[in-house]
Specification:
heterodimer; A: about 475 residues; alpha/beta; Aconitase, domain 3; Aconitase, Domain 2; 3 domains; 5-stranded parallel beta sheet; about 15% strand; globular; B: about 190 residues; Aconitase, domain 4; 7-stranded mixed beta sheet; about 30% helix
């Protein structure tokens, strides 16, 4: 009676946990980026250690990289702050010194770490995947056990390909029903976080199950798993199925030929046993879900776009502070609130289908005069594919900016920021105070809602604009 | 790391739930490639006003908070990103313990690996600590209890291995590298 999570865990235990010691867990794929790795490489140097498995380690530069075109370090120096440019140089030096493959800013494979892992076929069912980044849960969409780690653990995995872990509890979120038009995977996950709260998943590995998951594309599944951490969960995952295998078939790092057939046969054994037990379980019907928007300063402060902002319960200082920061009041509906910036991007919603969804709204329309709209593809490959489809022309004709790939305005480390007091409707994952720039106000939403808001100039319900 | 047995200090209280790592250390300071110096930017958007002067209403700017080593915070402290810069910034500022009713998972693990003690207490103790800022308390790692004046010692949970490492000033890299043979055997089986 094993769940998907049990199977993934058991297959990677090098040394079992005891009352005294956590388990030693083997890591199949370690993704590395420029922000959380430099201090880990320093640990290796201080101790004279090497990277145990460079072949299981893949690096990119995404957080502090500019989204204007650059082709050389000297151009980087012109557009980036000194510290950010130094950080980029440092990841290049570290990967070179330790023999790690780096998808640098000249690589056709570069992009946001959680976009390129799946895109290259490095992310596969049955794997353990870690990265010094909390949105590593994205890769769980493939039936992998994937989670974010700190820099000390980055050093552990670089040196030993292992980490110390106690097995978390398990949490099944069962999603059934059919999504209505204009409602998307982002709305599902925002609704889940609103339901269980930003600490509702703490201590758990979540498995999303049910017919609504089976109906989703891999892009949509990744959007849901991506935000598992916003409910505090250690990991989020989904059983692999034919949709998963079709996505991976033929990708360069996926198995080929007889090895592919063997892999698929193995992967078909991964879904949990029907009567596997979970420590917690909830059921949600996606057919009653609506487009969701956040009104506060964490992703759990979220309402349907046509519903009023709730009143704080009791003496909730953080809730009151959040409403004051966001300049909104209980009872108010966000729809109709003027918007300054719309950001389509991030590891949550910058895949090709996200750009297509946004373009479907923008096509033949104009971004409102009061709005700056920034579209940042998740990877170079997505950018190229979108351009081949003419999506860039649709966005540019509407008055949006079409940028180079990276994390960009989600974390605002690269110069792409929202000014203090300005309101951004963003397809990213965090609406924390100052996340998109000191004093910036963020409304999290789906690509459809963000695009509809760009056209309207106010927070807007996409159901009025979808064909 | 220096061994840690217990920490005695007055508390400083930030009574807000869901304090995220973007507040503890905003992303714009993560372009650093070292661990040092982040205390200067701890809670920077709350500590400083828009013109860069210290915000007199923020508790960490109060004179009596200057040598406090124990932070009492609302529920779900440290939620958000995996940035280990959060415990680095807290430690660099001089804080060594965070007490709450819930502490986010990745922050909790990162803290322990740096000698910053995350302490989860019951709701009653937490409410008392929120209402009594500045009280001197002891977080005793050896007995895993918080000693609060006039109250029974309050037990807290800490992973036995993490505790062993903290009490003895050990980090976990040495433990993992000693298992190289087990790891090689696992790889031989799995590949």
């Amino acid at each position: 009676m094993k769940s998907l999570f049990d199977k993934l865990w058991d297959a990677h235990v090098v040394v079992q946990q005891t009352a005294d010691k956590p388990a030693i867990l083997y890591i199949d794929l370690h993704l590395v980026h420029e922000v959380t790795s430099p201090q880990a490489f320093d640990v290796l140097r201080e101790r004279g250690l090497t990277v145990r498995r460079p072949d299981r380690t893949l690096a990119t530069m995404d957080h502090s990289i500019p989204t204007v075109p650059i082709s050389s370090l000297s151009e980087l120096d012109v557009v980036s702050e000194t510290a950010a440019a130094y950080q980029i140089r440092q990841v290049m030096k570290n990967c070179s010194d330790f023999g790690i493959e780096l998808k640098d800013f000249t690589s056709p494979d570069r992009g946001i770490v959680h976009v390129i892992g799946p895109e290259l076929g490095a992310t596969q069912p049955g794997k353990t995947i870690v990265c010094g980044d909390s949105h590593t849960s994205t890769h769980g969409a493939f039936g992998a056990l994937a989670f974010g780690i700190g820099t000390t653990e980055v050093a552990h995995v670089l040196a030993t390909q292992c980490m110390l872990q106690r097995k978390p509890k398990s949490f099944a979120i069962n999603l059934n029903g059919t999504l209505q038009r204009g409602v998307s995977a982002k709305d599902i996950v925002l609704r889940i976080i609103g339901e269980i709260g930003v600490a509702g998943g703490t201590g758990y590995a979540v498995e999303y199950r049910g017919s609504a998951i089976g109906a989703l594309s891999m892009d949509e599944r990744m959007t849901i798993c991506n935000m598992s951490i916003e409910a505090g969960a250690r990991a989020g995952m989904m059983a692999p199925d034919d949709t998963t295998f079709e996505y991976l078939a033929g990708r360069e790092m996926a198995p080929k030929g007889a090895a592919w057939d063997a892999a698929v046969a193995r992967w078909r054994e991964l879904p949990g046993d029907p009567d596997a037990a979970f420590d917690r379980e909830i059921n949600l019907d996606v057919s009653v879900m609506k487009p969701m928007v956040t009104f506060g300063t964490n992703p759990g402060m979220v309402v349907a776009i046509d519903e009023p902002i709730p009143a704080p319960s009791g003496n909730d200082k953080a809730f009151a502070k959040a409403l004051e920061y966001m300049q909104v009041e209980p009872g108010q509906r966000l729809a109709g609130t003027p918007v300054d910036v719309v950001f389509i991007g991030s590891c949550t919603n910058a895949r090709l289908s996200d750009l297509e969804a946004a373009a479907s709204i923008v096509k033949g329309r104009q971004v409102a005069d009061n709005v700056r709209m920034l579209v940042v593809p998740g990877s170079q490959r997505i950018k190229n594919e979108a351009e081949a489809m003419g999506l860039d022309d649709i966005f540019k004709a509407a008055g949006a900016e079409w940028r180079e790939p990276g994390c960009s305005m989600c974390i605002a480390m690269n110069g792409d920021t929202v000014a203090a007091g300005r309101l951004a409707v963003s397809t990213s994952n965090r609406n924390f105070e100052g996340r998109q720039g000191s004093g910036a106000r963020t409304v999290l939403a789906s690509p459809l809602t963000a695009a509809a808001s760009a056209i309207s100039g106010t927070v807007a319900d996409p159901r009025q604009l979808v064909d | 790391m220096e061994p840690i047995k217990s920490i005695t200090s007055k508390t400083v209280v930030i009574p807000l739930d869901d304090i995220d790592t973007d507040q503890i250390i905003p992303a714009r300071f993560l372009t650093t490639t070292t661990r040092e110096g982040l205390g200067e930017h701890l809670f920077t958007d709350w500590r400083y006003t828009k013109d860069g002067t210290p915000n007199p209403d923020f508790v960490l700017n109060a004179p009596e908070a200057q040598d406090a080593q124990i932070l009492v915070a609302g529920r779900n402290f440290g939620c958000g990103s995996s940035r280990e810069h959060a415990p680095w910034a807290l430690l660099d500022f001089g804080l060594r313990v965070a007490i709450s009713t819930e502490i986010a998972d990745i922050f909790f693990n990162n803290a322990l690996k740096n000698g910053f003690i995350p302490v989860v207490v019951d709701a009653d103790t937490h409410a008392w600590l929120l209402e009594n800022p500045g009280v001197e308390i002891t977080v005793d790692l050896e007995s895993s209890t918080v000693i609060v004046p006039g109250r029974d010692p309050v037990p807290f949970s800490v992973d036995s291995f993490a505790k062993y490492c903290l009490l003895n000033g050990l980090d976990q890299m040495g433990f993992l590298t000693q298992h190289a043979d087990d790891i090689a055997a696992f790889e031989a089986r799995a590949e």
